[in-house]
Each structure stands twice: as structure tokens, then as C-alpha cells.
Amino acid sequence: xxxxxxxxxxxxxxxxxxxxxxxxxxxxxxxxxxxxxxxxxxxxxxxxxxxxxxxxxxxxxxxxxxxxxxxxxxxxxxxxxxxxxxxxxxxxxxxxxxxxxxxxxxxxxxxxxxxxxxxxxxxxxxxxxxxxxxxxxxxxxxxxxxxxxxxxxxxxxxxxxxxxxxxxxxxxxxxxxxxxxxxxxx
Length: 186
Description:
globular, alpha+beta, 6 helices, 9 strands, single chain, 33% strand
């Protein structure tokens, strides 16, 4: 397990191989891989569920990845299963003082989401200082709601999302570690 802030940040900026899923940190992606991830993110199938559903430019995307090199709160990986790019997973807004981190995921290969998310949960098990994972998703995204529920996340609240159309509701779900480090629904 890792606990020191500097150690965690440095540790999370690398690539991992967990349960047959290779997690390639965004900061280590080559330009073609960065463009592929951008294409996925800008596809309607993915961005319609994002809080900022607008397409982003290549310059914005590359700048975002560059900022991740010094960011101690946000960590993103492209996931590969059997050497095939399959999606993206992340820890976002990691707050070691509050012991919480948000997670994000999208898969581009049918059936890969559970494997990708399980690799992130396994990674989380090695981070002693983060006790709670949270996810926020659009209330209309029933598929994601059921997916996170099947992983043990429980609904903890619903807030009104202040977006471009001011009408989307966001569901907040969380998953907690017990004192013994084992995972349980909150």
C-alpha cells in the first residue's frame, strides 16, 4: 500500500497491468494514442453523458494531458485488454485529506467496462489514504447507474446540474472501504 502524497502521485502517474487489463497513463501516451482517446471522448456515444458534452479540440486535449504531469489530484489511463485499446478510466479530484476520490470510466469495446473498472478498484485497494470512491452520473444514464450498483456503489444523493440546458439531474453514488481495508457499499 502507498500512503505518502508524493509517493501516491508519482506511483499513479505510471502504467499498470492489473488482472489482464493494461492501464496506460495519459501522460505516457504517444500522439496517435492521444488522438484516438480524443476521438472516443468526442464521439456522441461518450460525450452525451459528460457534464461538458461539447466536443473538445486537439489543442485542449493535449493541453489537458500536459497539465496532468503536475496534477496531484487527477489521474487518467487508457485501458487495453488483450493489447486492444478498450476505454478510459480515472481518479478525479482525489482529496487525501477528505479521503475521497471521484472515478470516471467509458469503454469503447462491448463488454470491457467491468474489466476496466475492476482494474481501477484493484488499484484503489493499494491506496491506503483514499477510503471512499464517488461517481456522479446523469440520472437518465440508467445503464451506468445499474453498472455502478452492480459493483457495490450506492446512491447517496441527487443534485440539480447547472449545465448549458440547466435541466439535467446528477446522481451521486459511493463505495467505501471498511476499517480493515475491505470494500463495502456505503
